[in-house]
Write a structure and sequence with these properties.
heterodimer, A: 284 residues, mainly alpha, MetI-like fold, 2 domains, 11 helices, 0% strand, globular, B: 322 residues, 13 helices, 2 strands
């Protein structure tokens, strides 16, 4: 009887443990499936024209997405210029200056902002920029993505600055440096590799955002006329081409998807490796 | 006249002294960082205010019945949001139904069984899954998942469970089912990484004490570790739910975009985020736009409440653990 029970327990143990392992394998298999599928379909649709030519009018085959690549670059540049400074400075305030009550409030609000669906941010950018100006613009898209970058910028800055030991600050202050000098010439440089890779992760996260660009940067099939004019972007192009009926556009969508995913994953892997190897490893 | 010059002088003095103090850079740095911090509060306030003000026309016209109305007719200027709310809830819950068992099981494997080296590598890979842009999931959804469902999964499902109302009706590929499946893949990484962390936060002594009493590894995990981490795991599920509710592109591409309330998962539907993504740029008429913005406000409110709950759950377990 005893033997029976213990055998049953062992079987249950083995079965459940293998099941949990199997689930992990399934989840990871999905990742490799996505990578493999995109690689296969993407590379076969990719050629030099994709990077150098404009989209062809519908019905004609060939063409590329040069305007969308440049457009994505412009939107992301704007987003970085808006989101990173604000988030970085607020993170410095949280880590170095803030009192407890205000820090609690700010952290809470930042978390809240991080949870806001991207499409809602798009609506707000539309209401604040597009509607008053009466036309879609690169700037509105950059603003939407910039707002989305703020929460992670704040959080990484605070985390990495907090990981810097206090003795560094005390040393600088003891030498007669002002607080600002201590923070910006001693503490921030000490955390710089973490900060930079944190911001890279942040950029990679918004680089694939599509929803907030649909009615801010909009999209077109020619070179954008400037920062205040609409522009095509890679993610929106992928979306538009994927839901279009033409087979040729689907190929372009695969190529664009491949380029976008490669970019995002490369940035991710690089940044994570830097963080894991960095001296101020502040992974909580 | 005299007072004005006096106050001018005054302000010039004030400016001068401020300038003097600021020259060291200390005050400037402080003010800059403070301004950024306050700026974030202002931005979030602005989001709420903009959504609220711009949705007023709809609130005045329909009031509460907007949320319970089932007719969405832009041409007739009649707007009811229930089909979208229904679609968002159905797809999100379906996603959780699939993602939670896989996610929790994977986190158990990563936290309790796999050697730390392997666990770190696998967790890294799963977190990469979270970095894949949602439009890419949509792309795979349209061209791989939808045909797969049409040719293999759904014929099997209807053959086995065709008598259930949730598997009745014709299937065209785009559907609640396809959207739920795509969403489930997208939210699994969030469940895994948060659950793994709360499991790792359970003190080692608990496991050792239980194992010393002669339990198997699985019994220890199931009866000791998981109950200890349960609120945190629930928190991770809520976090995943908030993601699923707000997810736009992948859902828009595979849900079918038909405002319809039906029990069948095989039928095409619509979700809040999808209708905003599809119709916002082309919406004409202030009532139409304001209805879409009101939907945005509903989505905003939903995700905030669920995120807040998730945070509370995760924080309570981590406190208890340490």
């Amino acid at each position: 009887m005893m033997v029976e029970i213990s055998r049953q327990r062992k079987v249950v143990n083995a079965v459940m443990l293998s099941l949990s392992g199997l689930c992990t394998v399934v989840v990871i298999a999905v990742l490799f499936f996505i990578l493999g599928y995109l690689l296969w379909h993407g590379i076969s649709s990719l050629n030099l024209d994709f990077f150098t030519k404009l989209p062809k009018p519908s019905g004609e085959s060939g063409g590329g997405m040069a305007n969308a690549i440049v457009g994505s670059g412009k939107v992301l540049l704007l987003a970085t210029a808006i989101g990173v400074p604000v988030g970085f400075l607020a993170g410095v305030y949280l880590a170095e200056y803030s009192g407890k009550a205000f820090a609690f409030l700010l952290r809470y609000v930042v978390d809240l902002l991080n949870g806001v669906p991207s499409i809602v941010i798009g609506i707000v950018a539309y209401a604040v920029v597009v509607r008053p100006m009466r036309h879609y613009s690169t700037f509105a898209g950059g603003l939407a993505l910039g707002i989305m970058m703020i929460p992670i910028a704040v959080r990484t800055t605070e985390e990495f600055l907090r990981a810097i030991p206090n003795s560094l600050r005390e040393g600088a202050l003891a030498l007669g440096a002002t607080k600002a000098k201590t923070v910006f010439t001693v503490v921030v440089p000490a955390a710089i590799s973490g900060l930079v890779s944190g911001m890279m992760l942040n950029l990679a996260r918004v680089a694939g955002e599509t929803a907030p660009l649909l009615f801010t940067a909009l999209g077109n099939t020619f070179w954008s006329k400037g920062w205040l004019a609409p522009t095509a972007t890679l993610p929106v192009m992928i979306y538009n081409y994927a839901i279009a009926p033409e087979e040729d556009l689907h190929k372009q969508a695969w190529a664009a998807g491949f380029v976008l995913l490669t970019l995002v994953l490369l940035i991710n892997v690089t940044a994570r490796v830097i963080i894991a190897r960095g001296p101020a490893s502040a992974r909580r | 006249m005299a007072t004005s010059t006096l106050s001018q002088q005054d302000s010039r003095l004030a400016v001068h002294s401020l300038f003097k103090r600021a020259r060291g850079g200390d005050e400037i740095a402080y003010l800059l960082t403070l301004a950024s911090a306050v700026g974030i509060l202002v931005i979030v306030g602005l989001i709420v205010v903009e959504l609220w003000i711009n949705s007023q026309p709809t609130v005045h016209r329909f009031g509460f019945s907007f949320l319970t109305g089932t007719r969405w007719d832009p041409n007739g200027d009649h707007f009811g949001a229930l089909p979208f709310i229904y679609g968002t809830c159905v797809t999100s819950l379906l996603a959780l139904l699939i993602a939670v068992p896989f996610g929790v099981a994977a986190s158990i494997f990563l936290a309790e069984m796999a050697p730390p080296g392997i666990s770190n590598v696998l967790t890294f890979l799963i977190e990469l899954l979270a970095a894949v842009p949602s439009v890419i999931y949509g792309l795979i959804g349209i061209f791989v998942l939808v045909p797969f469902n049409r040719d293999y999964l759904v014929p099997v499902l209807t053959h086995l469970f065709g008598y259930l109302p949730i598997f009745k009706g014709d299937f065209y590929g785009v559907s609640f089912l396809s959207a739920g499946l795509v969403l489930s893949v997208m939210v699994v990484p969030f469940i895994v990484s948060v659950s793994r962390e709360v499991l790792l936060a359970v003190p080692r002594e608990q496991r050792e004490a239980s194992l010393a009493l002669g339990t198997t590894k699985w019994e220890t995990t199931w009866q000791i570790v998981i109950p200890n981490a349960s609120t945190g795991i629930i928190g991770s599920i809520f976090l995943a739910l908030a993601r699923a509710l707000g997810e736009t592109m992948a859902v828009t591409m595979v849900i079918g975009n038909t405002p319809k309330i039906t029990a069948s998962l095989l039928s095409p539907g619509y979700s809040i985020a999808a209708v905003i993504a599809n119709e916002f740029a082309e919406a004409s008429g202030s009532l139409y736009v304001s209805s879409l913005i009101f939907l945005g406000l509903v989505l905003f409110g939903l995700t905030i409440v669920i995120n807040a709950l998730a945070r509370i759950f995760v924080i309570t377990t981590q406190r208890r653990g340490s």
